[in-house]
Amino acid sequence: MATAVKEQQLTIGDVRITYLSDGYALVHPAPLYPMSTPADWQSYKRLLDASGQLVCSLGAYVIQTAHSTVLVDPGVGPKNNVFPLGAQYGGKLLANLALADIDPASVDIVFYTHIHSDHVGWIGQKTQDGQTMVFPNARQLVRDIEWRRFDDPNVSRARVEEALELLQDHIELVEDSQCIAPGITVMATPGHTPGHSSLVVQAGNERVLILGDVVHSIVQIDHPEWACTLDLDPEMAIQTRERMFRELARSATIAGTSHFADSVFGRLVQRDGKRRWEAL
């Protein structure tokens, strides 16, 4: 049975990348992937819990280089969310940062792959002095297109209203291919949201692609055409997924996923004529 990842770490060159849990989600699989059927999921029981729900990790990445500390997507936050597709259980990130000996004040950059509630949960916290920023010394970065989509009054701000308000006076807008720190570059990966982005972490000839929500589950390795119901542009998301799978097929390339169970890090390999996920 699948389990959410609590902590996982790898090193390329002199760069350490750590995934730290904020919690987990349990999601009804067929509604999450409308092109799938309950029968399809008989082949993927290993990804489900005892009640037949898809187990998803929720957390954040910390990229530590000789020059900077970058945190990617600060979790779901100190709350539990129940919604039609399932439930999210958060609240562990700050404790896990402490266990990993990472001081929030030491974080130089917080980068958002996109603005969905499970990726922006630990921006601020309530203290005796009111609402304060969790990462007080960090630059807050997101792609221009992702931030400006909320200028449209028809775009829902549900469940991210507080995050948008907290970021309003702090956000810095970046672009595709922009280097945000030595060895760390933005890569546009639209579809899940219009301004969704991944990060390319390069050290020598090795690289890690922090994918955000380009892919939500291992099932999409076998079925990239299974768009997630949360993808705002399903066709674009499918095209982006296939493009990123080609990137991951290149040598010395590792994926860092947001929601995979058991292992968030892995490689795409060809085995028996098929593309396979090889967990690290």
From TrEMBL:
One of its GO terms (molecular function) is hydrolase activity. InterPro entries: MBL_superfamily_lactonases, Metallo-B-lactamas, RibonucZ/Hydroxyglut_hydro. Belongs to the metallo-beta-lactamase superfamily. Keywords: Hydrolase, Metal-binding, Zinc. SMART domains: Lactamase_B. Residues 57-259 form the Metallo-beta-lactamase domain. SUPFAM superfamilies: Metallo-hydrolase/oxidoreductase. It comes from Ktedonosporobacter rubrisoli. This is MBL fold metallo-hydrolase. Pfam families: Lactamase_B.
